[in-house]
Design brief:
- It contains 9 helices and 10 strands.
- With about 280 residues, the chain is α/β, with parallel strands linked by helices.
- The strands form 2 sheets. An 8-stranded mixed beta sheet has the order 6-7-5-4-1-9-8-10.
- The longest helix has 16 residues.
- The chain starts with a helix and ends with a helix.
- The relative contact order is 0.15.
Length: about 280
């Protein structure tokens, strides 16, 4: 073979290699866009604080938007002095003998943890974080408590109990940084703290049965800025029901399940339906 033929053959082989089409295995898929980096904890906290400061509902400023009013009724929040001279929140676990012998009552009635669970369900809800929730507590001793929309309840029961003891003795809890009153004892009756024209409804397993979505459509305005203010009275006791005798301003009693539910579970169902109706995700 001559040199010209060898050069021609080599050039043709190289050209053939250039024209070879890649097989299916050689074809590469398009590279997806890079994932968005999650914000740091400090950045997330600052963003939440900015949204809170700009939200007139959370800061307490007057606005045309409605707040759903929730009253936790018959909460067992009572203090007792222990042997060391310190005050504690009376509960069935730590003061069982005291309830039986001295108070002559069933220890199962003293369940302040129910109020704690319900408060966490309310304050953790998107409805509250959007600034459309106002919470009150009425204890079994007829002590009425108002919570600021920006309050943060301790996650653990022990710290919650200490906070409630401080509130019941000092009558108010203030924020350490700016002095905002986060929780305070207010005067009875509860009806004088309701806006004019508020529709009040009680929740009980003995009430008229509605689905959560049906209840929201029937009672709550279609939009947060709609006309009409609504208040729900929800029990925070271990046994018993919310009654019209205790709250004469209740217009009607409703239920959202065929089965008895815990207070926290009922709250989650009610708020979830209202959030869906108001477009709060």
């Amino acid at each position: 073979m001559s040199d010209d033929e060898s050069d021609a053959s080599s050039s043709s082989s190289e050209g053939g290699q250039d024209n070879v089409q890649p097989t299916k295995k050689q074809r590469t898929a398009p590279v997806p866009p890079p994932l968005e980096i999650a914000p740091t904890a400090d950045a997330a906290n600052s963003a939440i604080q900015n949204r809170t400061s700009s939200n007139s509902l959370l800061t307490g400023a007057k606005t045309k938007s409605n707040r759903l009013i929730i009253l936790l009724d018959q909460a067992k929040l009572e203090t007792i002095k222990n042997r060391r001279g310190n005050y504690e929140l009376l509960n069935c676990d730590d003061h069982r003998d005291l309830c039986k012998k001295k108070l002559k009552k069933d220890p199962k009635e003293f369940r302040p943890d129910i109020c704690h669970q319900e408060l966490l369900a309310l304050l953790d809800s998107p409805l509250n974080k959007a600034g459309h929730l106002q919470i009150y507590i009425r204890t079994s001793r007829n002590v009425l408590i108002e919570l600021h929309p920006s309050v943060r309840i301790p996650r653990t029961y022990k710290r919650f109990a200490g906070l409630m003891v401080q509130l019941l003795h000092k009558m108010k809890i203030k924020a350490a940084d700016n002095g905002t009153t986060l929780m305070k004892v207010i005067k009875n009756p509860f009806s004088q703290h309701l806006p004019v024209g508020t529709q009040v409804y009680g929740m009980s397993c003995q009430g008229t049965l509605y689905s959560p979505g049906g209840l929201a459509k029937a009672l709550v305005p279609l939009e947060p800025d709609g006309a009409g203010q609504v208040c729900f009275v929800i029990g925070a006791m271990a046994a018993g029901h919310v009654t019209v005798e205790d709250h004469p301003y209740i217009q009607k009693m409703f239920s959202i399940s065929e089965y008895p539910l815990s207070g926290a579970s009922a709250i989650n169902r009610i708020l979830g339906a209202i959030e869906h109706q108001w477009g709060i995700v």
